[in-house]
Write a structure and sequence with these properties.
By secondary structure, the chain is of the alpha+beta class. It has one domain. A 5-stranded mixed β-sheet has the order 3-2-1-4-5. The radius of gyration is 12 Å and the shape is globular. The chain starts with a strand and ends with a helix.
Length: 81
């Protein structure tokens, strides 16, 4: 299954949305950035691609964020790692 990966990178004035290494948008908060991606602002996934969202942490590594179809149990488990 193909994946469509969105990375959320902190900036001095908010959060950047990066797709395939290219900056596609900036938002004032992580919440606004994630909401825009989930709403399909940056392209709806019409094929069977899996939506993957990652947030850059203070250590520079990327951490998975819950996707739009994750169950609460899966989301809670992923956030613990």
């Amino acid at each position: 299954m193909q994946q469509r990966v969105y990375d959320f990178i902190p900036q001095s004035d908010g959060w950047a949305v990066v797709v395939d290494g290219r900056l596609v948008a900036s938002y004032a908060s992580l919440y606004l950035a994630v909401t825009a991606v989930k709403a399909g602002t940056h392209g709806k996934i019409t094929d069977r691609s899996r939506l993957v969202m990652r947030r850059q942490g203070v250590d520079g590594s990327l951490h998975d964020l819950p996707g739009p179809h994750d169950t609460s149990a899966a989301r809670d488990t992923r956030l613990l790692h």
